[in-house]
Design brief:
heterodimer; A: 631 residues; 63% strand; elongated; B: 138 residues; alpha+beta; four-stranded mixed beta sheet; 64% helix
Amino acid sequence: MLRLAVFASLLVLMQSASAISSLHITADSVTHDTATAQQLELMVDLASTTVTAKAVHIQYQTIEARNANILLDYRALNNQNQHNQSQPSLTLNTDLKQNTDTSWAKTQMYCLLPKNLATESWDCSNGKFTAQRINLPFSLSVLPQTKGFIANINLQNANFSDEAGLHAAEKLNGHLTLVAKQEGDTLNFNSALNWQTGEVFWQPLYFANGGHELQMQGNLKGDIITLDNATLKLDKVGDLNFSGKINTKNYTLYKLDADLPSLNLTEAYPLLFKPFLGKTMLNDAELNGKAALNIHVVDSQLKTFKIKLEDVNIDDKNHKFAFYNVNADIPWSYDDATKVSFSYNNGQLLNMPLGRTNIGAEVNRYSLVSPSITLPILDGTFKLSDISAARINDNWYWHLRAELTPVSMPDASRAFKLPIMQGKASAEIPLVTYSGGILTTDGEIVLNVFDGKATVTQLTLQNPLSDAPRLSADMNLRNLDMGSLTRTFSFGAIEGKLDGDVQDLEMLNWKPIKMDAKLQSSDGKYLKKISQRAVENISSLGGAGAAAAVQRSVLRFFNEFNYEKMGLSCILRNNICEMSGIESTPGGYVIVKGSGIPAITVLGYNKTVGWGELVDRVKHVIDGNTKLIVK
Amino acid sequence: MKKLLLSLFVIVSILTANWVAAAADLEVNTPAIAALKASMQARHGQLSPFYSAGAIGLTKDGMIAVKDATAVPLSQRGSLSGLVSAENADRANLYKEIATANGHAEWQGDIQNTFAGRWIDKAQSGWFYQSGGGWAKK
């Protein structure tokens, strides 16, 4: 097979007349199969029993080598060597690169050759593979087998990185055993990779340390790899057993069976899940408990999976949600409908405490239906009915009906960190639809609070769990008992009933940014009394002018006054609230209109006030701070 | 004649471009813009050391990009790319919201270009920015 392409010159130097002591052959070009070597030099030194082979350039398939040097040292056989070696040795030195690379890598290796090259182990130590950003010191031993080999490779303190630094390792120590045997057109292999220590970043995954193992047994036939049995052991995380068949050219997955019987979520969440969760609501949580996962893929199609959660706790670090003692059994099948179950012992969602909940649903490929789900919240329950959800083109769509049975307001106010309100609240939500990140309600949400009724209509909520949830709604309040309302917010006592209309309310991150709001005493006959403190507080909301307009002498003599009507409105735009009362006066507006004896009239003069300032004023009043902010 | 037409065309384009820049209020504030700015402000503390280390730089289209991840320890590289993509998502939204607040959604591209220059002007010395085909150090 050896063919000398251009010419070969044979130079024989005679050192003595009787024996040839060295042989020197040079060739411009030598081709063997798909390999071509240029400017080849072969020197055989019979006196010192060494063979040196050099090539300026070698091309083999897609790999190029330059400045290749091979030294075969047989001095051991006649005890002439300097290294005290008892075996002959092979030293290899060359620059290597892929055809497409621009820079060269250096490879060096020193191997001791066994007496029987075909049946005994070749041991190579002090191996080095270095290139820009790559430094892989290794040792290698190869034991030739019939039509195969057993190789052991050790990496010692290796570093590598791609140009972008997105696939990189530092101080890596590991061991690879590879057994390979050719049978006809099939290459059978059995490999065990043991990553002992060192850190690896493989975008987006980061492993701070080793202790992981990958064992694979299978065969390669043409472009198709068949794995009969493979195990990935991730230290402290869990063991994944898998098998399958894949085409390495076009990545067609003919078959995959994977089983993860016990996954430690405490370790798996930061290591494997968080890097993929990006800006989702699950990306900053604490997770613990156990999970199990099972997957079957046939012809690139996910056929079945099964997820089990066992006593899992999920706690959002931003306190948006938490679920404790979550247990779930979620089977899924491409072909058949399955029944899933999900339960938790307790938790919270946007600060609302959640009680023990069991959810059952039927899943049919990409849709889910459940006749009803009951979520205990405080002492009431949130009942969801007619639930149906579907995932279409990577987006969730769902709708449901909801009803909140009476919840005691003192508990709810404590949960939401609000002043303690009395009574009970209940609600009915006719139809809630979630589509494209937007939650909308049809019809009226009716809340029964403060012995009156609050009605919310046109409610839509965009990206409820994001950093910037956006809410828009209209709201009506009817006949709220001002006695219990003012006592709740320590505003100073007012007897009477309150109506309110908030039109075009828009809230961003739960702060109002736009609304047309109007609060006023309800029509009709009922006891209408206002205390001295309430008068002062209302005055302070209207600004400095209002406070001054109150007749202080009158205030001093009476604790309570009669009123005919009261009201205050705010049109909020661009952080400015344009205020008015129940009537206009020259230069101001009437907030409280008195009636009978003793009567009092409170006027407001601030027609515009910054929203932040108004909120501060209300806060100070509610906090019972007598030093009012009046600017 | 051809030359005259060409110069006229150039003058008109320059005038129109200036008109756009002059008419757009880049400081316009809406709650959406305030929320984006707050989110970017909060992230800046985390990005700042990466700018200084030369790991990331300012692109000429008003975004940021990973320039050299190897300037950052392996353990921080995952958060680096996450921060960069989150920042770019906010920046794209910011340009869109400013254009919308100005009542001219079609100005988004011009606003983005104006901001690209501003970010580079405001960059601290030692930070990298895209210049020509490569990176330059300020």
